[in-house]
Amino acid sequence: MRLLLINPNTTQSMTEAMTTVARQIASQQAEIVPVTARTGFPYISSRAEAQIAGAAVLDTIASHQSDVDAVIIAAFGDPGLTAARELFDLPIVGMAEAAVMSAAMLGERFSVVTFSPHMSRWYSDCVHQTGLGARFTGVRCPVTAPDTLENVATALRQDLIDLARDAVALDGADVVIMGGAPLAGLAPVIAWDAPGILVDPIAAATLQALALLRLAPSYDNRTNRPLHKTSTGLGTELTAVIAGEKT
Amino acid sequence: MRLLLINPNTTQSMTEAMTTVARQIASQQAEIVPVTARTGFPYISSRAEAQIAGAAVLDTIASHQSDVDAVIIAAFGDPGLTAARELFDLPIVGMAEAAVMSAAMLGERFSVVTFSPHMSRWYSDCVHQTGLGARFTGVRCPVTAPDTLENVATALRQDLIDLARDAVALDGADVVIMGGAPLAGLAPVIAWDAPGILVDPIAAATLQALALLRLAPSYDNRTNRPLHKTSTGLGTELTAVIAGEKT
Amino acid sequence: MRLLLINPNTTQSMTEAMTTVARQIASQQAEIVPVTARTGFPYISSRAEAQIAGAAVLDTIASHQSDVDAVIIAAFGDPGLTAARELFDLPIVGMAEAAVMSAAMLGERFSVVTFSPHMSRWYSDCVHQTGLGARFTGVRCPVTAPDTLENVATALRQDLIDLARDAVALDGADVVIMGGAPLAGLAPVIAWDAPGILVDPIAAATLQALALLRLAPSYDNRTNRPLHKTSTGLGTELTAVIAGEKT
Amino acid sequence: MRLLLINPNTTQSMTEAMTTVARQIASQQAEIVPVTARTGFPYISSRAEAQIAGAAVLDTIASHQSDVDAVIIAAFGDPGLTAARELFDLPIVGMAEAAVMSAAMLGERFSVVTFSPHMSRWYSDCVHQTGLGARFTGVRCPVTAPDTLENVATALRQDLIDLARDAVALDGADVVIMGGAPLAGLAPVIAWDAPGILVDPIAAATLQALALLRLAPSYDNRTNRPLHKTSTGLGTELTAVIAGEKT
Amino acid sequence: MRLLLINPNTTQSMTEAMTTVARQIASQQAEIVPVTARTGFPYISSRAEAQIAGAAVLDTIASHQSDVDAVIIAAFGDPGLTAARELFDLPIVGMAEAAVMSAAMLGERFSVVTFSPHMSRWYSDCVHQTGLGARFTGVRCPVTAPDTLENVATALRQDLIDLARDAVALDGADVVIMGGAPLAGLAPVIAWDAPGILVDPIAAATLQALALLRLAPSYDNRTNRPLHKTSTGLGTELTAVIAGEKT
Amino acid sequence: MRLLLINPNTTQSMTEAMTTVARQIASQQAEIVPVTARTGFPYISSRAEAQIAGAAVLDTIASHQSDVDAVIIAAFGDPGLTAARELFDLPIVGMAEAAVMSAAMLGERFSVVTFSPHMSRWYSDCVHQTGLGARFTGVRCPVTAPDTLENVATALRQDLIDLARDAVALDGADVVIMGGAPLAGLAPVIAWDAPGILVDPIAAATLQALALLRLAPSYDNRTNRPLHKTSTGLGTELTAVIAGEKT
Question: Domains plus CATH for chain D?
Answer without folding.
Answer: 2-95+205-242 (3.40.50.12500), 97-200 (3.40.50.12500)
